[in-house]
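Throughout this chapter, every protein is written as a compact record of paired, labelled lines. The reader may check this reading against the record printed directly beneath this paragraph:
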Amino acid sequence: MRDIQELTELEIDRIVEMAWEDRTPFDAIYGQFGITESQTIDLMRRNMKSSSFRMWRKRVQGRSTKHSKKAPEDLLTFKSRMQRGIALNKMPKR
């Protein structure tokens, strides 16, 4: 488990982006960055406006695709179509 304070600004931006995606489970964030679901929620709380955080929590809470154990068995990937241009956690300029 990694401490949130150790994360760079680029890593935080990428975690926020992954957390916003509906099909990216918290397990994928843990696997890539070493932070747990509760740490991800805390990071989102600290880096978003309160209204945006509440909207995100309402949408994510109980969502089966955000929790690998609840996800359908045929869900084999957590990569969204928006991630095609992402390589090594770097987004191309749009």
Q: What stands out?
A: The two ends are 33 Å apart (CA to CA). DSSP finds four helices and no strands in the chain. The chain has one domain: 4-71.
